[in-house]
Amino acid sequence: AVLNPAPPQNTNVYVVQLCDAISEVPRVQRLNPDADPDLDLECLYVGQTGLDPQIRFEQHMAGIRASRYVNRFGLRLNMSFLRRPNPMTELEALREENSLAIHLRSIGHTVVGGH
């Protein structure tokens, strides 16, 4: 019998810290109705990439396939929010990107991305 190889673990989840001014953007406010400005928590972008996360962050900042939010408000890569190690399979990364964004929002962060 021919075994299917395991899917490659070649996708990374990453988190970018954004400047607080993003919380004034009406669309971002609508995405984060429970964000608590009194907690003074970081504003964050959650994404996934097949690249090294630092390279992907630099692309955002240079306007290459960039999130407008990261391009305009990005401060630094902040991988301390990750809950599991990179890399992972594409499906695992998609699920983790989404669940991490939901989790961070649920504890009061302003979050964009996290498709």
SSE topology sketch:
Layout: E1 12-18, H1 26-31, E2 43-49, H2 53-62, H3 68-73, E3 74-77, H4 90-106, E4 110-113
Parallel strand pairs: 2-4
Antiparallel strand pairs: 1-2, 1-3
Can you tell me about this structure?
The chain has 115 residues and is of the alpha+beta class. The chain contains four helices and four strands; from the N terminus they run βαβααβαβ. The mean pLDDT is 95. The protein has a four-stranded mixed beta sheet, sandwiched between helices. 34% of the residues lie in helices and 19% in strands. It has helices spanning 26-31, 53-62, 68-73, 90-106; strands spanning 12-18, 43-49, 74-77, 110-113.
Distance between the termini: 38 Å
* H/I helix tally: 4
Principal-axis shape: globular
Helix amount: 25-40%
Work out the strand percent.
15-25%
Q: Are there runs of 5+ residues with pLDDT below 50, and where? A: none
Helices and strands, in order, run as EHEHHEHE
Total beta strand runs: 4
Multimeric state? single chain
Order of adjacent strands in the largest pleated sheet? 3-1-2-4
List keywords for this structure.
about 120 residues, alpha+beta, four-stranded mixed β-sheet, about 35% helix, globular
Give a short synopsis of this structure.
This protein is α+β, with helices and mostly antiparallel strands.
